Amino acid sequence: MQILVFYVLSLCTVLVSSSPQVRLDRTTLVGSVIAGLKLDFFGGIPYAEPPLGSLRLRPPVLKSHLNAGLFNASSFGLSCLQPGVSNNLISEDCLTINILRPSGVNERSSLPVLFWTFGGGFDSGSASTFDGSAIVAQSVRRGTPVIYVNFNYRLGPLGFPQGAEAASRGILNLAIRDQLAALEWVQINIGAFGGDKHKVTVFGESAGSIMTSILFLNPSISKFARAAIFESGSASSAVAFNAQRREDSWTDFVRGIPSCSSFVGTSSTVKCLQSANSSDVLAGLLQSLAEATEQFPFDPTLDGPHGLFPGLPSELFPRGQFARLPFIAGTNLDEGTLFCPTTLNYTNDLLKEIVDTNFSPPTVPSNILDELLALYPDDPSAGSPYNTGNETFGLSPLFKKCAALTGDLEFDSQRRHWIQTASESGVKAFGYRFTQPSPTIPAALGVSHGSEVAFVFGDPETRNQSASANRLSIAMIDYWVSFATSLDPNDGRGSPRPTWPQYTPKRQVITLLNGNNLTVIPDDYNKEKIDFIISEGSIFRHRR
């Protein structure tokens, strides 16, 4: 028996010693090796205290140390509470961070860092879905190695509490506070993994891009990052209201938790929620999301001059209240298709109602609505998905008009307004338009919102679609890595690709990302429509 015990202990020692290790304070983190790629993975590392009990619905408390001599960091942690995921894969104890680095890196390597924030409508998503292996492996092959970091943040009402009580308690935008806490953890600890805390590029898509853009409304973000890449989302893409606007969303959440339903309408809902059990909190979260009438009932909220979302971007931009850090910002060809339900029978009256409800605080004058909709023909050949002629895919004839309108309102006008404003202030910026179709996406959605992500992450299924898809994915990773390492997408390393010009007031050009036509184009698509939306900023979110 003694011999057997000695053998087992020896085997464990061999396994630990052959795995990558990093020392953080008094703890040794034991990671895993990505077979065949010569990459080290460290995952499931808590960056904040578990947001349970009295810490539920509170700003994150940074994790100062792990209470263990050895910590198994060989796999991802659990995802945060959300719909559509098995209960054994989610938990409130979900605030974890993950690091992927080239093997052989040590604390003296000082590699640039790419820090990813996932999207998912602010109520779903997980870091474990986004494998950065292809990015890091390609960075090594091109001679500019980087470290990839991603993390989990709280979702739905736990990440974005709404209502007057949440505002008075200072607990708005907790998910963005989680993001900031993860960035602070990187500043403290990334050096031990071989990263350079002064060379962090934050990037994200959709909700992740919007959250990152909101951080850019605070010049102090420069303490945590030196650059950003915004994929399909700007700060003004959020339907920015104050917390009281969504009191009903918060009420629905609290009412769905039996032990707290009697506190609806009082100033004690948060205290009750902090003592509720996790299964009841999950049930309330799922019920409130299922019954929501708004597309995004829990999302970023204006939280005042000393908050993370201090004001409407259009009010802050003229005052110069934004970070002067280099960035890349872009959108996809058919951003709006995912946000127009395919089951609806669209009419112009319904489209007016949609715009009035979802894109404007609080109502749009009828003459402005008429003028806006007149810019978008009923003719399907003019709608989105673009370049599909009169095809309606068996949907309502005005579906394509809804998608064109939504894409411009939600994403393209916001991106153009942001990059124009920043470039006028001397910020080094680069724009793109992604137009590569994918056979895995239904034709009715076109080059939809989120379709570029697989190319950025070098998804094997995406790369194997065609030679042009593979070529584009390699080029996009080269552009992204080049920007992270040199603050310019044109470092001359890696795949042959066109020079990506800087966006300036006198040269407003963007790069067209398409495997068959990787080129530079003027930033003037849908110009009349987008100019109108920006000019009516007091109505369409910008509030200039």
List the helices and strands and how they pair.
Elements: H1 2-18, E1 21-24, E2 27-30, E3 32-34, E4 39-46, E5 70-72, E6 96-102, E7 111-117, H2 133-141, E8 147-151, H3 156-159, H4 164-168, H5 174-189, E9 195-205, H6 207-215, E10 227-231, H7 247-255, H8 269-275, H9 278-290, H10 313-316, E11 327-332, H11 348-358, H12 366-374, H13 399-424, E12 429-434, H14 453-456, H15 460-463, H16 467-486, E13 509-513, E14 519-522, H17 527-535
Give start-end ranges of low-pLDDT stretches: 1-15
Helix content: 25-40%
CATH architecture of the largest domain: 3-Layer(aba) Sandwich
* Spatial strand arrangement across the major sheet: 3-4-6-8-7-9-10-11-12-13-14
Rounded Rg: 24 Å
Q: Using the alpha-carbon principal axes, give the shape.
A: globular
- The CATH superfamily name of the largest domain is Alpha/Beta hydrolase fold, catalytic domain
CATH class of the largest domain: Alpha Beta
Amount of beta strand: 5-15%
> What does the average pLDDT come to?
93
E-strand count: 14
Description:
- A hairpin with a 4-residue loop joins strand 3 (32-34) and strand 4.
- The chain has helices at 2-18, 133-141, 156-159, 164-168, 174-189, 207-215, 247-255, 269-275, 278-290, 313-316, 348-358, 366-374, 399-424, 453-456, 460-463, 467-486, 527-535; strands at residues 21-24, 27-30, 32-34, 39-46, 70-72, 96-102, 111-117, 147-151, 195-205, 227-231, 327-332, 429-434, 509-513, 519-522.
- The longest helix is centred in the C-terminal third of the chain and has 26 residues, at 399-424.
- The chain folds into two domains: 21-319, Rossmann fold (3-Layer(aba) Sandwich), CATH 3.40.50; 338-536, Alpha/Beta hydrolase fold, catalytic domain (Rossmann fold, 3-Layer(aba) Sandwich).
- 32% of the residues lie in helices and 14% in strands.
- The chain is of the alpha/beta class and 544 residues long.
- It has an eleven-stranded mixed beta sheet, sandwiched between helices. The chain has a three-stranded mixed beta sheet with strand order 1-2-5, with no helix packed on it.
- The chain has 17 helices and 14 strands.
- Residues 22-532 form the Carboxylesterase type B domain.
